Amino acid sequence: MIHGNGYFFRDVGKLTPKIRQLLEKVGEEKITSITMFRKPISLSGLAKYLGVLKNTPYDKLFHLGLILNGKYLLDKQEVIHFEPSTLPQGKDVESMPIEINKEITINELIENTRKRMGNANFTNYSSRKNNCQDFLLNILDANGLNTAEYRKFIKQDLETVFNNLPSYAEKISDFITGASAFVERQMEGEGSSKEILYNNGLPLCKVAF
Questions:
Q1: What is the CATH number of the domain that holds 195?
Q2: Total tally of structural domains belonging to the chain
Q3: Which residue has the higher pLDDT, 164 or 182?
Q4: Is residue 28 part of a domain?
Q5: Is the CB of residue 76 less than 8 Å from the CB of residue 114?
Q6: Is residue 123 part of a domain?
Q7: Which residue of 59, 62, 63, 150 could cross-link 38, Cys pair, CB 3.0 to 4.6 Å?
Q8: Range of the domain at 24
Q9: What one-character DSSP code corresponds to residue 55?
Q10: Which long-range contacts (CB under 8 A, 24 or more apart) does 60-63 make?
């Protein structure tokens, strides 16, 4: 069933109903471990197609995320993901444990991040200005967990990448991720999951984006 808040409306800052349902079950778990990871992103196909990344070490670009308590993934791709998962495997995956210096629950970790970022930045995505790196930095900063070592692990020099792109390439990237986010929000919803349109007793789509 597709959940949402109405045509052309969305609750900015709200997580998907699927995530909120999981948080209702596990959100009050105290965080006992956080493992940060990064894994290479294959951009070679798009790079060759555009012919614009020849001077950029794009094989060194990574996607980043967190594994909480060894069993939950928290990251931002087109949208925020929180789901059961263990640390990604593979010879190119790098990881680093985060030292936890306070008592904090999963709900508190996420809510502190939302308050720091603001609703729009929390749920929106930009390949240049609001990506997986920025999300992780905000999580650690908002919860008093960041260090210079963690920041160095997280922060890749994306400016080098974008400076080698033509002006339209970033717009293409954001369009693609925006389209993916639109599709995912149609499937998973965002914000209220209670308001559903009906026609002859059958549920209709209420697009959330």
A1: 3.90.1720
A2: 1
A3: 164
A4: yes
A5: no
A6: yes
A7: 62
A8: 17-203
A9: T
A10: 60/156, 61/156, 61/158, 61/161, 62/38, 62/94, 62/156, 63/38, 63/39, 63/132
